[in-house]
Amino acid sequence: MAEVNATVKADLVAQSVDFTEQFTANVQTLLQILGKTRVTTLPLGSTIQTYKSEVTKVDGAVGENELIPLSKVTRKKADTYQLEFNKWRKLISVEAIQSAGFTPAVTDTDNKLRREIQTDLKTKLFAQLAKGTGTASGTGFQGAVANALGQLAVLFEDTDVQTVVFANPLDFYKYLGNASVTVQTAFGLQYIENFLGMGTVIFSGSVPEGKVYATVADNLNVYAASLNGGSVGQAFDFVTDETGLIGINHEVVNNTASYQTVIISALAMFAERLDGIMVTTIKEPSAGTADPGTGK
Question: Which residues contact 52 (CB under 8 A, 6 or more apart)?
């Protein structure tokens, strides 16, 4: 008869399943707020290409009946990324498990590591957003956002666009003042849907204060190499779900009297067009001029 309250293999499998389901649920919620419907699955090692536009604009001062010189807009390749595995390993000693208990020592630290993995994904996304080559500016938070969305409407005028705005929470709450709004949280990000009819606004300290990033949902892509099936599934005992976005393995390491967690994932978030990202400057109202957003 098994000892009462002993952690058995079935408990460990359930723990692994819960980990993958939480991660996948968070990714699906992130897709929803980004206006995406699914993750694009690619083979491991696939190249992800981003693009930018270079504009050669000539002087528009042309006299009557004179030949108008040509301006030129060229689409060029920007950064290239490769879809590859990221791997993490955590080892918990028998002493730590005996002292704290199995759940605090293993399960809780697994969840902390999962949140850090999510943070890494967000950090890479914001680093790319900062490379956007589209520019706009406006007075106050609302004016800056409105001008950015206007630029996007022109750039993507043949597309039914759903806009996504990324802002520093300090700028947003400075604009908001004492007004109350309902802020939701997903993937460690706070966001508001359809704020003032301007689409989804996502808040992060990764956006510099005084700046706003804005793009359209169609410009954002989420890629993954699935862990389901294939040679990886045959060779390794990773627990995953039907999406195959992340895999986890728990194992007793007897020669060090430790308990090991190994996590693997090939997941990336990128904007395809850098010129489709408006890096927008929030200008302060001049003295004696009311902020168009707040009226102050």
Answer: 75, 76, 77, 78, 133, 273, 274, 275
